[in-house]
Amino acid sequence: MRPQFGNRFLTTDKDVFEHNAWDNVEWDEEQEAIARESVQKNSAEKMHRNDVKKYEEEADKFWDSFYSVHSNKFFKDRHWLFTEFPELAPSAVPEGSAGENSRRIFEIGCGVGNTIIPILKYSQEKDLMIYGADFSAKAVEILQEDPHFDKKRCQVFVLDATAEIWDVPFTENSLDIIVLIFVLSAINPTKMPHVTQQVAKYLKPGGLVVFRDYGLYDMAQLRFKPGKCLEENFYVRGDGTRVFFFTQQDVRELFEKAGLVEEQNHIDRRLQVNRGRQLKMYRVWIQAKYRKPLAR
Description:
It is built from 9 helices and 11 strands. By secondary structure, it is an alpha/beta fold. Strand 5, helix 7 (192-202) and strand 6 form a beta-alpha-beta unit. An 8-stranded mixed beta sheet has the order 1-10-11-6-5-2-3-4. A 3-stranded antiparallel beta sheet has the order 7-8-9, with helices on one face. Helix 3 runs parallel beside helix 6.
């Protein structure tokens, strides 16, 4: 059975404001209809094509600006990381393992190390090698300054994952795990298939992709004002960065068309509450795992 995202479940509505958050909350038809209507309203007015072009061509500048403003204050230790993706946990490989058991992990969109640093911090694997790439040179710079960054076990670099050819320090069919956490959503949807094709190319046979990203009707999508929509389910934030909201089928098509086999495709719905203001805020994420078939 799939490990749950957290362990606090709402069984009766009267308890909703007893805690700050509830896990795996079910939606009824009325709530989904309200969310759908909200999205229809905020996406009815599309952004002017000249602005759409600007956010596409200057995407790296907006992300550099984002990390320059937030600096390393943006770092968050993802406490759910090893629960949701035990394949990344230090216990996945025996301590001091070497040779054929050494792991090669690559995170695309590594940011300032929210995934990489916990792995480096808690893993004692002697021959572990983690690669990290981000569109933002500023993010890579901040990550390298982290006290837990270990250049013997980690190599990070700037990469535009939508580029036709990747300039990377590893070969095709060589990676055990590729991590995509809140990164595909920042990419133009028309370019996503190329990224997943590249992912499949660099995974070794039997290798795994772990994915977590924004789901359709997430609170963040419902909060957008009219005029911020670039195209269906794709928006620009106030800071100029972009975000796409996925359905399970969107994710399935992206990875299966790249030749990968589905092992998990799950919707995580989490209810966050402001007990002081008696507000309910619904988060929606898609979590998935896809494996590259073994060579025949």
